[in-house]
């Protein structure tokens, strides 16, 4: 069993996370921790075409991140309709 990756949030991701309501924020944090434990598991995330980023789903929100061993760099947390416009 490998150690989980260290979670690093960008300024934009931190701001987006803080703007969420408490139950959604808790679910997003739990998902980020699950992804850090096993980032390549297809149940946790999937690769985005044309980029090195991966995406994880939490209800109507998406978490975009990069795996930079030993870190999991969370790039953005946004609603499903908005997050892919900035890729």
Account of the protein in words:
The radius of gyration is 12 Å and the shape is globular. The termini are far apart. It has a single domain, classed as YaeB-like fold. It has a 5-stranded mixed sheet with strand order 1-5-4-3-2. It is built from 3 helices and 5 strands; from the N terminus they run βααββββα. With 87 residues, it is of the alpha+beta class. A hairpin with a 2-residue loop joins strand 4 (61-68) and strand 5.
According to CATH, the homologous superfamily is RelE-like
Q: Main beta sheet: strand number and arrangement? A: 5 strands, mixed
What is the β-strand count? Answer: 5
Q: How many helices in DSSP terms? A: 3
Mean pLDDT: 92
Strand content: 25-35%
Category by helix and strand content = alpha+beta
Report the uncertain regions.
none
Anisotropy-based shape: globular
Give a quick summary of the entry:
With about 90 residues, this protein is an alpha+beta fold. The chain has helices at about 10-20, 20-35, 80-85; strands at about 5-10, 45, 55-60, 60-70, 70-80.
Secondary structure elements and pairings:
Layout: E1 6-9, H1 11-19, H2 22-37, E2 46-47, E3 54-58, E4 61-68, E5 71-79, H3 80-83
Parallel strand pairs: 1-5
Antiparallel strand pairs: 2-3, 3-4, 4-5
């Amino acid at each position: 069993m490998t150690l989980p990756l260290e979670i690093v949030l960008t300024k934009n991701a931190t701001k987006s996370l803080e703007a969420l309501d408490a139950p959604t924020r808790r679910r997003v944090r739990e998902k980020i921790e699950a992804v850090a434990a096993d980032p390549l598991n297809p149940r946790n995330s999937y690769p985005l075409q044309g980029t090195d980023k991966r995406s994880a789903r939490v209800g109507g929100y998406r978490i975009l991140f990069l795996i930079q061993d030993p870190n999991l760099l969370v790039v953005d947390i946004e609603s499903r309709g908005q997050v892919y416009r900035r890729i």
